Each structure stands twice: as C-alpha cells, then as structure tokens.
Amino acid sequence: MEFPTEIEYNMSMKQKRCVILPFVLLLLLICADFLGAQETAQAQYTRRYQNGTQLYKLARYQEAAIEFRRAQEIAPTVNEKSAALYWVILSQLAYSDFGSAIRDMEDLAKTAPTSPYTRDMLYHRGRVYYNQGYYEEALFYLNRYNQATTDADRQSADRRAASFFWMGECLFAMGQYEEAEKFYAWVIARYTDSPKVEAAAYRIDLIKQKKIESELLALLQWSHEEALRTSEDYQRTIRTYEYTLNMYQRRIAELSNTENVILNMNNQEFRPSGQQQTADDAGTPERLIQEPESVEYTYNDYLIERARQLGNNVQEILNNNESGGR
After folding, report:
1. How far apart are CA 187 and CA 104, in angstroms?
2. Which of 29-43, 115-129, 208-222, 300-314 has the lowest mean pLDDT?
3. pLDDT (average), residues 212-240
4. pLDDT for 19-44, tens place per residue?
5. Most buried among 33, 44, 139, 217, by the most CB within 10 A?
C-alpha cells in the first residue's frame, strides 16, 4: 500500500480548505445578518416603547397607544410583547376606548396567562365593567383580583384598597347601601394610608344621610296617608250629615204642606156656615187655640229641632276640619 507523499498531502488539504472555507464564510455571514436583524428589532422595540412611555406621560394617550402597538408587533420576546400590550390597554382605558381594551385584555390573557400583567387586568376589567354599568360583572372581576393578590408592598396594598373601594361603589350603585358601607369601612380600617380613604369616608357619610332621608320620607308618607284617611273620614261624615239634613228638610217641607191643609180643614169645621175665613182670622191666637193639636204638627216640631241640631253638628265638623287643616 502506497502512502501519499508530503507534497501530495499538503495539496489535498489545501483543496479541502478551499472547498470548506466558502461554506464557513457563508455561515458566518448568515449568523451576522441574523444577529444584526435581532439587534435592529430590539432597538426598534426599545425606541417604540420609550416613545409610547413619553407620550403617555404627556397625556397623549391615542398616540401612545399607537407607539405601544408598534412595539408589540415587533417585540422579540413574549415578555416584551406582553409589556407593550399592557400599555396599549392602559392607553385605551385612558381615552375610554373600552371595547378595544376588553379585546386586548383577552389577547393578553391568551398570550401570557401567568403574567403579572394578566393578573392586573382583572382589576382594570372590573373598572371597565363598572364604567359601563355592568356592576355584577365588575364585582366578579374585582373579587378575583383581590383573591389573586396580597398586600405584599405599598403598591399592591393601594391597588387592593382601590379594588375594595370599587366593589363598594358597585354595591352603592345597585342600591345595596349596607353592604357597600362594609367595604368602605374595610378600606378605612385596614388601608389607612390609601388615597381611597377620604372617598370611602365621604361615601359612608352619604349612606348615613340617605338612611335618615329614607326614614323621614317613610314618616312623611305615613303622615300623609294618615291625613288623607282622616280627611276622607271627615268628608264621609260631612256627606252623611248633609244627606240626613237634606232628607229631614224635604220631610219638613212635605209635612208643612200637609199641616197647612189640615189647618184649613179644621178652620172650616169651626167656622159658621156661609162665613168665609179672612186673613186676620186665620192668624189670630184665639183661632189657633181653638184648633186641635194634631200628630203631624207635633212631629213637624220634632223634625225642625232635629234638623237644627244636624245643622249645628255639620257646622262643628266643618270648623274642626278647617282648624285641623291649618
């Protein structure tokens, strides 16, 4: 077996290097391009993110949302994408685009379910539902946030205090004042340094005032109903007396007519035949003494006296009613 000489061996190695070297160079170029692209994407992400932060601080929330959205689209990692999307949502909430914020919250929950940003979105989602008037849904998400967090630091404590406060606000808006008062009292007792303490104390005073107003309103309503019942009783009594009085007056009128007829007949009996009654004779006391006392005449006097008494009773009731109304 013949072995290659040293010259032949060197020539063979040179040929192999000539073949391998281009592949190595190509691989290095590809790696360099990839690293350069990575650096460019990272630099773009950082620039977009910083621009969004500056715009957010200047309260230019719509522009900030655009910058954060661009940073999200070119984010190199999942964590950076989650951070950019988190600030997109906060910007949308700042200019009250609640529908877009809810959609991005769902996207964030799918992209990074275990991210701290996703946990914080429970609080913001509860706030969105409160602003939209969905108080039960807001209570659900705020309660989930409280269960997922602790008072580990000042920021977490303030956020939990705010969460309890907004739960009280949901109950207050639903008219459940006693339950709402418990959450306000909890904020005041446990989170004494929270910015929500003053607002919670104001709400408690307002609830106490509402309780007093409710009690006064109930008392006023009862008094009004009682006055109406009393007035109706007076009116019924007056109508009864008026009806009875009218009935007696009609009866008196009927009996007066009957009495006149009877008196005329009696006068004719005591007058001699052929003698006519004169106006003077009809009204003389002597003639009246001679007339027999009839049952109708006695009952007539009774009715007149009864009618007079009824009139006095009606007048007394009217006077009492007027003095009571004053």
Report:
1. 30
2. 29-43
3. 73
4. 455 554 455 555 544 444 445 778 88
5. 139
Could you list the residue range(s) of the whole structural domain that residue 317 is in? 223-267+284-325
Residue 307 falls within a domain, yes or no? yes
Q: Are 215 and 223 in contact (CB under 8 A)?
A: no
153-162: long-range contacts (C-beta < 8 A, 24 or more apart)? 154/193, 157/191, 157/193, 157/194, 158/191, 158/194, 158/195, 159/120, 159/123, 160/191, 161/187, 161/190, 161/191, 161/194, 161/196, 161/197, 162/123, 162/194, 162/195, 162/196
Is 20 part of a structural domain of the chain? no
Q: Is residue 153 part of a domain?
A: no
User: Does residue 262 form part of some domain?
Assistant: yes
Which residues are CB-contacts of 12 (< 8 A; sequence separation ≥ 6)?
Answer: 4
Q: What is the spatial distance between Cα 282 and Cα 276, in angstroms, rounded to a whole number?
A: 10
Query: What is the number of structural domains in the chain?
Result: 1
pLDDT tens-digit series, residues 52-73:
999 999 999 999 999 999 999 9
Which tokens belong to 226?
A: 């009682």
SS3 153: coil
Distance separating alpha carbons of residues 244 and 128, to the nearest angstrom? 71
